[in-house]
Amino acid sequence: MDLLLDTFAFGSVILSGVVRTFQCLAIGGIAFLIFIALPLDRRAADDALAPRTLQLTRMFVWGLLVTVAMLLALQVTILSGTAEISLGEALGGDFAVAQIVRLAGAILMLILLYGRKPPAPLLAVLALIDLGAGVATSHAMARIDARGLLIAVTALHHMGAAAWIGGLPCFLSAMRRLPAGALRAQVGTRYSALSMTAVAAIAASGIAMLIYYVGSTDAMYGTAYGMMLGTKITLFFGLLALGYCNFRVVRGLAADPSGSIMRLRRFAEVELGVGITIFFVAASMTSLPPAADLMTRDRASLTEIAQRLTPRWPDFTSPGRDSLAFYEQQRALDEQRAQEGPLTLQAYVPGSGIPLPRNAEDIAWSEYNHHIAGLIVLVMGVLVLLEKTGKAPWARHWPLLLIVLAVFLFMRSEAEAWPTGKLTLVQSLQDPEFIQHRAFMVLMTGFALFEWSVRNQFMRNAWAQYVFPLLSALGGMMLLTHSHSIANAKDLLLIEMTHMPLAVFAIWSGWTRWLELRLDGTARTIAGWLWPIFFCLTAVTLLLYRET
Amino acid sequence: MRKYLRNLVAIAVTLTLLGWAAPALAHAIIVSANPTADQHVAPGKLAIHLEFNSRVDKKRSRLQLTGPAGDKTDVPIDQAGEPNVLAGTTGDLAPGAYVLRWQVLAIDGHITRGDIPFAVGN
After folding, report:
1. Which helix (H) or strand (E) element contains residue B66?
2. A139: which chain B residues are within 8 Å (Cβ-Cβ)?
3. Yes or no, beta carbons of A93 and B31 under 8 Å apart
4. Do B109 and A90 make contact, defined as CB atoms within 8 angstroms?
5. Exposed, middle or buried, A1 (CB in 10 Å: 0-12/13-18/19+)?
6. How far is CA A106 from the centre of its chain?
7. For all residues of chain A together, what is the average pLDDT?
8. Residue A341: its chain B contacts at CB < 8 A?
């Protein structure tokens, strides 16, 4: 039963991110329909605007319906199993009622969206109901102080995100299908106005949430919540920069409706990708205690952070497997407990795995893994740069080094786990980190084969070249919520601190490579040089990685 | 070949999503507790008082006590009182080592568990 519950709990974390993404896409689609597609549709020559927007929105609402149903089923099963109450009792919980309301709302939305003329006011009401029910499963609902205010600002935050990022697929579709001219320029202008309003809502509500959920500078830098929020803000500023570039293109279209929109479409694609990354970060943050709630002793100090970030020459010697804590088991744990006293934060989510004891050799083992990985990635980055000079065509085989990296990590990560450790495959699968790392290895091999085939022109399909950048960005997104099962807030933070820049560099490396493939002219050249630089920065971060 | 590659991409994306980790820390955390971890309490009835950083659904939360012999008993939760406090009173406790396992359902749907080991007597 415990394994089943652990697996279910693990699934619910994944689903929360997917639900959040579908919610934004569905509400964003409805906003685009109401404010742009329906009012301008009479001027569209064919089905380029409203019918296509309806089609996309229906798809997103279906996604919302299915994923909310799955999430509800998982949450209720976990609650019923762990609290030993009936499924009926579990369904009576506030969160379950909120999800049931969302299901009913999504069904009504679909009925309206399949109609000939969907009534805009009713759709708007249903979108607001989903938004409200979504807020009922956010931090705001469970707060003790300033609850009403936080519910309001969270709703505003979600609404802004949905209107801006959630509306992007419909905007992209309209821009691609509409012929150059006044109507296309008008769609651009209206979406631009909607996005700017949404950005103002996100910024204003974000500041309010920052004050209540973080509250102080030391909570911002000294907690995992604050650090995740900082990363989210960094990505948000990246989105703003892209949005500003698009704003300039839209302004140009108002003067010359037949102007090129290629750059606008490409930047909007990246905006959508980074935006979805932010949704997943936000979804994972709802499972962390707000920074303001952690006491000073659970926060990392500036001195501790500076100590951890001080560069140190990477160590390329590995301890022996037999000296690792797993094999010494309780002895090390008992000593640590005796020295440190009781942990100050004894809480975990079912499914987060049981923390293993860690000794100095474990740390050296982990650091060695990161350093060797950094070295391999650095060689790859340098080879990419060499290939770009045009003077070293042999350097195009750099993707094969990813297979070397995957094999290395397969042998080295989770020394106690399957296949080289003592744990069986089933036991190993109970640790989320094991699944994460193995998923990474499969991804890396996939990266390697795709990119190598593309670069050597064995694979000529146009879409194949996008696999590498997309999976890079996905890998970064995954790393951004990568967590180490340590029941100590401070240790967790200090390790996460080094993973976050890695993730951000991987995300931007992926998206700048995407831009290189999708753009032309100077912008293509700039993007082409930027992505290997992000790649090298990832390598340097890995080389400097340390856990002490 | 194209179908094969498409399947590979689908598998890779699925694996990426499956790789999503459950955060090690939970949403609802204890702000103050009685008993505290490793505390020694006097024999007899024990008033449990756990204060959290968020509102909890008391009907769907649980307090379970594991005794020195490994026997498990549920402690009834008081439904009245502050919305962020789980309180209850145990039966008579004999000297020995105990573990209080709490599980709370925060109002927003997050489940958190924790263990508080304590001892009765010296």
Report:
1. strand B62-66
2. 27, 54, 108
3. no
4. no
5. exposed
6. 24
7. 84
8. 38
Distance of alpha carbon A366 from alpha carbon A540, whole angstroms: 16
In this predicted structure, the answer to whether residue A46 has a pLDDT above a threshold of 70 is no
Instruction: Find where tokens 């249903």 sit.
Output: A126
For residue A510 the two structure tokens come to 């992926």
Residues in chain B: 122
Does the pLDDT at position B8 exceed 50?
Answer: no
Whether the predicted pLDDT of A386 surpasses 80: yes
Q: Do B20 and A294 touch (CB under 8 A)?
A: no
Record the pTM. 0.82
Between A347 and A119, the higher pLDDT residue: A119
pLDDT at B20: 33
What amino acid is encoded at A228 in this protein? M
| Residue A131 and residue A100 in contact, taking contact as beta carbons nearer than 8 Å | no
**How close, in Å, is residue A160 to chain B by CA atoms?**
21
Whole-number Å distance between alpha carbons of A446 and A453? 11
pLDDT of A357 reads 55
Of B29, B26, B31, which Cα lies nearest the Cα of A9?
B26
If you ran DSSP here, which 8-state letter would residue A352 be given? S
pLDDT at position A354 over 50:
no
CA distances from A37 to A52, A339, B69, B94 (A): 9, 65, 69, 72
Q: Token digits for A213?
A: 């959920």
